[in-house]
Amino acid sequence: MNEYILGIESSCDDTSAAVLQGTRVLSNVIASQKVHEQYGGVVPELASRAHQQNIIPVIDTALKTAKIEKNQLSAIAFTRGPGLLGSLLVGTSFAKAFAQTLNIPMVEIDHMNAHILVHFATDETHTEVPDFPFLHTQIVVVKDYFDMEVIGKTIDDAAGEAFDKTAKILGLPYPGGPVIDKLAKIGNPNAFTFSKPQIPDLDYSFSGLKTSILYTVRDNLKLNPNFIEENKADLCASVQKTIIDILMNKLVKASKQTGIKTVAIAGGVSANSGLHDAMLALGEKYHWKVFIPRLSYSTDNAAMVAVAGYFKFLKGEFASQDLVPYARQSLKD
Length: 333
Description:
44% of the residues lie in helices and 16% in strands. 46% of the residues are buried. It contains 9 helices and 10 strands. The radius of gyration is 20 Å and the shape is globular. Helix 4 runs parallel beside helix 6 and helix 5 (176-184) crosses helix 7 (227-258). The strands form 2 sheets. A 5-stranded mixed sheet has the order 3-2-1-4-5, sandwiched between helices. Strands 8-7-6-9-10 form a 5-stranded mixed sheet, covered by helices on one side. It is an alpha/beta fold. The chain starts with a strand and ends in an 18-residue tail after the last helix. It has 2 domains: 4-126 and 296-315, 2-Layer Sandwich (Nucleotidyltransferase, domain 5), CATH 3.30.420.40; 150-293, 2-Layer Sandwich (Nucleotidyltransferase, domain 5), CATH 3.30.420.
């Protein structure tokens, strides 16, 4: 297994490059963009400019950390979409040029598939990977590396967006998810009750929850201008508990319907400590085998792109030089 795969991830505001030997991670470098904090969210134009500045140093660092030369690479895997089009163009354009210069193949990767396949990235201390089939919290039945069936999805906001929008309502800094998680640890999760949308089957929704939070805050601020400041930790704990309850209720239902007892979580929300605890508790209750990625694999990163690229490389599924990135649709559409 001497295949070295370079992964490039540039779908949003993190520029990342990773080098894998097979599935073993040799380096995983991430350059975050602080410029967006003052705006309370990612500004697409600023993101693409920052990617242009970061991509060469990040890739150079990834190669040096992995202790290999660029001419040892077997292929370049890159995120084709979905994401911010300007950001994706930077990664795609660099992958094309670099692959052509080195005369090696390119492998296009779907961002959402990569988040799921990150569980197959290994190193000296993490060697256990899930068996097929397993459930992903999106909710997806993962039958094989690229055979995935979506059986439940959000009809509006994703869980991560619900955290960020809640943070904005509470006047917390961006990104809101980590801040809410930190405050929730010292708050009472039963202090406030918010609505849980009743969505049929395995789909779920967070827009109603956001409205419930907004109205609760608005009505209480009329009575007490210091309501948020005095109840910040309790609000965060209650919101986090509600979001986790919505996700876990659907996951339990999916496990019962499919009979699958191997469950994995990935993506930005997988960094949430409350979700970790809930997953492990349900795993013990229902005898699940639970997979939770390390923090460095929870956010957007190139290791997940490279490991997905490795499996595509083995199948000989290479990308052409005339492809273009896509902002919204999945490769499965």
